[in-house]
Amino acid sequence: MKPSLKQYIFEIIEGSNKDNWVGQVFDSFILVLIVLNLVTFSLETVHSVWIEYKEVLTAFDIISVFVFTFEYSLRVWSCTVNPKFRHPVWGRLRFIFTPLLLIDLSAILPFYLPLFFPDIRFARSIRLFRFFRLLKLTRYSDSLKIIFTVFLIKKEELIITFFVWFLLLFSGSSLMYFAEHEAQAKAFPDIPTAMWWGVVTLTTVGYGDIYPITPMGRILAGILAVLGVGILALPTGIIASGFYDELQGKRKKKRHKHAIICPHCGNLIDEHPSDKSHH
Amino acid sequence: MKPSLKQYIFEIIEGSNKDNWVGQVFDSFILVLIVLNLVTFSLETVHSVWIEYKEVLTAFDIISVFVFTFEYSLRVWSCTVNPKFRHPVWGRLRFIFTPLLLIDLSAILPFYLPLFFPDIRFARSIRLFRFFRLLKLTRYSDSLKIIFTVFLIKKEELIITFFVWFLLLFSGSSLMYFAEHEAQAKAFPDIPTAMWWGVVTLTTVGYGDIYPITPMGRILAGILAVLGVGILALPTGIIASGFYDELQGKRKKKRHKHAIICPHCGNLIDEHPSDKSHH
Amino acid sequence: MKPSLKQYIFEIIEGSNKDNWVGQVFDSFILVLIVLNLVTFSLETVHSVWIEYKEVLTAFDIISVFVFTFEYSLRVWSCTVNPKFRHPVWGRLRFIFTPLLLIDLSAILPFYLPLFFPDIRFARSIRLFRFFRLLKLTRYSDSLKIIFTVFLIKKEELIITFFVWFLLLFSGSSLMYFAEHEAQAKAFPDIPTAMWWGVVTLTTVGYGDIYPITPMGRILAGILAVLGVGILALPTGIIASGFYDELQGKRKKKRHKHAIICPHCGNLIDEHPSDKSHH
Amino acid sequence: MKPSLKQYIFEIIEGSNKDNWVGQVFDSFILVLIVLNLVTFSLETVHSVWIEYKEVLTAFDIISVFVFTFEYSLRVWSCTVNPKFRHPVWGRLRFIFTPLLLIDLSAILPFYLPLFFPDIRFARSIRLFRFFRLLKLTRYSDSLKIIFTVFLIKKEELIITFFVWFLLLFSGSSLMYFAEHEAQAKAFPDIPTAMWWGVVTLTTVGYGDIYPITPMGRILAGILAVLGVGILALPTGIIASGFYDELQGKRKKKRHKHAIICPHCGNLIDEHPSDKSHH
Q1: What pLDDT digit, counting tens, does each position of C60-97 carry?
Q2: Helix B47-78 to helix B99-112 angle, to the nearest 10 degrees?
Q3: Where would I find the Ion transport domain in this sequence (chains A, B, C, D) (predicted)?
Q4: Taking the model in full, what pTM does it have?
Q5: Among D136, D161, D184, which residue terminates a domain?
Q6: Domain span holding position A36
């Protein structure tokens, strides 16, 4: 069965088939454009660059938005190929409110609606969310799934670790405030500031803008730093054991999956049961 | 058998049954109140906030203590439902001296006994210990048990690691004192101060308040920092292998446990042998 | 069959046979000479050392280059012993363009071609690449293979981790720029500078040259630092599980390999099928 | 068979039997004395403490040395109980030259030989080595053995990791010198100083005494910091997989060991084959 133009466009834009080289080129082009947008977005804040290349940067911004708008329109137009969004009106509306499409919209909306968002710089920062579109790239999706699965499996342990860490942060910072407030009222004026010190110390960043100077404060800070490093070992251990588990589970699953891969298109059949008609 | 009011209250306050939504709401309410107390406790130390919201913060403090006192009274009154503390006088006395109840008491005592603790701020910091009450929350208790079990199983390895770390800290700081004392007597005036430098370096915090400037001191500091980073790999490795062990043991145990879960209430039967009569 | 002089030289220079003590001495000598070159290369930049030991350092440099040139010539002359580079002209040419030989050439070329590279210091820095020659050393090659294999197996997970990390870096630094630019325009003048702060924070280096001072910036920096530390746990977990996998695979392979080690020379027979004729 | 006084003393000082409570007390007493010596050693360098407590500290030092001398004499006298050092002269001489006894000697020698070591402070620092005596304590020896075994098993991987790390340090620091020397000749005057910056960065300590300011230097430093953090994941992964291996091996071994534990004294019989006569 020969595909229609809409089906062809849909395959290029949304398809995950690695044999479709046009789709690969399209994905790469959008990816490069996003990265270039991030670079220009950063460079626009550099005063000397903005002065000199104002026109180039603005032109590139306008072109980018037009490309992204065209891509967005193509997606909305062709989405009815997907059986899940078959209806020309309600299907498209439901498609528009999927997270990925909302991200796409947020990348172009700030350009068209300067009335709604008068602070144009902040509005532009929303385009960063377009970055998440990368996650869609097929070749990475398997690995990303593993990482998310590990986090999901180990959710409870990670939350309780963060909870213990926060307990340490709060009690440590409060004690630090009492130990150091007298000696250096400027560095430790209140507990929230002491908690800033606590975060910087327990993550071992250690800027050095605030640090204890009294013997009691230093002993306390030393104990906190050691405990902080010890607690940092917890998520690593949790995630390492999670990766090992996930890997073993995935291996078994994969062996099972190989049996139900479609020999015609290379896709997994039970993942797209509605596509069964295509061969 | 219809439960009495005391049994009903006991189930709400001390019960770990996830189907009891009143108990869940009660736990959440106390949890939110504790967190709010921590926030106000921190904000009270910020001078500008204290000046402006003195009355609100004080009122919130009084209300919180009354709520905590009421909760404490309910716990002591209803504890006789638990067969372990059945006796109205001795049971309650034994209950009062359990760690969790002592923590609860320490949260409200500083308010009622300003004569015993005239320094009201320090007294209030005891209320932080109420934070530990969170650990009781049923849904986290399993994960917390795993973390504690891992630490217990690996206790010896972790102690010996800390011991080796301390050995490195002490000898390194002493050598550093001899290397740098001549060049910068202010930064390295004595070995205890050099040990402060050592803790900040070996935990990789690195504030930058004290650092070597002589070639010999820098080589020594470089070696120490590398060794410190190497030793930090030890607890991570220990804990990671501990998590993996614990996980495998737990999985086997769980499979066994499923067979003896009560189909009526969802509790594990062999964990509450005295509750066997309830179905 | 008695080996010719060329074969004998080839065994010494390129051979990985641990019983060949002349080859071991040769490897050690070249290794020590490389390390000494690195030391003198560093010391030449110290002004006081350069003033005093100019002649010694220059003489050592010339001698080193001559030794390295002699070694290079021997390698090119003897390479025809290897069946892969048997042809006296085309084999040698192909040998010269192997990566290791190009590294060797880059170590001596800067000395002979000062016309091509007038900035003699930068040219000398190319000699650093000779350092990689160490990787050839037989006794380390097994372990290095494991490390590279682990990185290769886990390539996708590591790339996606780096990608998530970069996403966090870019979005965090951009938000930080908006939070801190007003308060301290010098520390956060533009997003590229904010990204420098982001790299220093997310790797927990924390120099302290740039740090937030506004409450919003500090809360943001705290969240970023915690997330950064959390993401650092990912590669560790990935690599730890990779090492465990690789180890188990290697163990099985090794058991198999032992069966096909040549009892006469100690080499693995199926690795050098063309050498089968030697016993 | 009733033990003689010498055997009794030997059991107390050198014995690892946990039922011998006199030996336990003796070990604890020596341990506490060592820790107190470390504390006084540190405090003596604090000028104000030294001025005020000179007599107390000196007296404590003299008493400590006498106790350590008495302990050393007892060890040398009673060592002949051990079949390995049975000969009253040659056995004792061989015993004196065992590492542990040399450490013991080094703790007291600096006191008796101020002529050999006129710089009394440095001499005293040798007493630190007495600290290693702690490692002898029976209850920790098993865990320490595991840690050492893990390092031994993974020796090659750890060395090659350090080698890769050093390669990165050297090349990164050299490139950094070329990138930053022009902009800040004081911070990066030569490559050795740049390497100090490199060590501080690659271990993520980040004092902030030296940091790049040029865009090229910052990009280079960012890449180096990320690579440094990535390499830090390697030893953790290596050690974690090593711990897991060692644990499994140990478990199998232990099961075997249980069969040959002496039912009379609790010691492992095949560890002290010469003690077989004691039951």
Answers
A1: 988 988 898 998 899 999 988 888 888 889 999 999 99
A2: 130
A3: 24-245
A4: 0.81
A5: D136
A6: 5-136
